[in-house]
Amino acid sequence: MTKLKKGLVAAAAVAVVGAAGLTATQAVSADTTDGASTKTSIVDKIATKFGLNKEDVQKVFDEDHATHDAERQAKQSERLQALVDKGVITADQKTKIETKLKELQATRESEKDSFKTLTKDERRAKMDANKAGLEKWATDNGIDLTKLEGMFMGGAGGRGHGRGPDNQ
Q1: What global pTM score does this model have?
Q2: Among residues 36, 54, 60, 124, which is most buried (max CB within 10 A)?
Q3: How far apart are CA 43 and CA 115, in angstroms?
Q4: What percent of the chain has pLDDT over 90?
Q5: Phi then psi for 29, rounded to 5 degrees?
């Protein structure tokens, strides 16, 4: 296979994986012969499979992630502006919501590894505490979370972790 074809196949593979919403930080565990677990990221697998530089593949994933994140934030802002236009929230509340969403995203990113080490009950307790904190923040700012079309906690009623009205 020529270098051009090899590069195109690799680029297509990266695009397909990126489009599927996978990120470079997702890891797949594989047992080794000594019973220990090693982590191999999708970036490593693509780089190895197609003989590419790992840093180049990582750069593609990072750029794709940044693009999708920017698109998501733009859509959120448009949805919030529509709520301002309808009189559901004020412009000041829109700004507060956007700030809170960024804060929650940063918290999720910083806690994602430690979250994996918690037991199911510990995760549930942490999610319930986060939900209670968010509800207090919303009340303090005069924001009705049920009118925000699923921007927080998986939707109205806080069903983000399987505890909707039918799952209590």
Answers
A1: 0.60
A2: 60
A3: 23
A4: 48
A5: -85, 140
